[in-house]
Specification:
Layout lengths: L1 H13 L14 E5 L5 E7 L9 E5 L10 E5 L5 E5 L34 H4 L4 H10 L7 H12 L6 H8 L1 H11 L1
Antiparallel strand pairs: 1-2, 1-5, 2-3, 3-4
Helix pairs in contact: 3-6
């Protein structure tokens, strides 16, 4: 009986409702996790006048190129909320100054070395090489949207596959190959 009581009390602590989360302030970048496991990132903005009480409004324009606007999510649909670093105007994460009294954060592990581009890919001037590269990474599986997903993956600390790294490194060659194949 003690085990059941202990288990139930731990489950109630672990499964805190989203309403118990700290409300982020406007201007903070957050990642919202839904009960399905899906996530969305954005910057908290003031909710529009039509937004229901107890909801969060995110500006997704910086996070997802090609998308402009906001999304309003009821807090009851939020399984988790995580604050993330602010973005600079260039679209890169800003280096937040550490508070004077706060201890230094743990150092991030070094990124794995990037593989050297293949010799045939270095000759970007040759349209034949560009078409060859495009043939190795054909649309619609490989696209500018896929490149953005690879960049988000890197930002989150996930390691892209070797094919994703090669595609990201040689994206300009891929675009030339796409134009040349039309």
């Amino acid at each position: 009986m003690k085990n059941i009581t202990l288990t139930l009390s731990l489950l109630s602590i672990i499964g805190l409702p989203a309403s118990a989360l700290d409300d982020p302030a406007p201007g903070e970048r957050v990642e919202i996790t839904f009960p399905s496991g899906g996530t969305i990132m954005g910057t908290i903005v003031a909710p529009p006048g039509t937004a229901p009480a107890g909801s969060l409004t995110l500006d997704v324009s910086w996070e997802y190129p090609g998308l402009t606007g906001t999304i309003t999510v009821p807090k009851r649909d939020v399984a988790g909320l995580r604050k993330i670093r602010a973005m600079e105007e260039s679209g890169r994460p800003a280096e937040a100054p550490a508070p004077a009294a706060a201890p230094k954060p743990a150092a991030r592990p070094p990124e794995p070395p990037k593989p050297a581009p293949l010799p045939e890919v270095k000759a970007a001037e040759d349209p034949g090489k560009a078409r060859e590269f495009y043939a190795r990474f054909p649309a619609p599986d490989w696209s500018p949207e896929r490149r953005n997903m690879i960049r988000v993956k890197k930002f989150r600390g996930q390691i892209p596959t070797p094919a994703e790294r090669e595609f990201d490194q040689n994206f300009e060659l891929w675009e030339k190959g796409r134009e040349a194949s039309k």
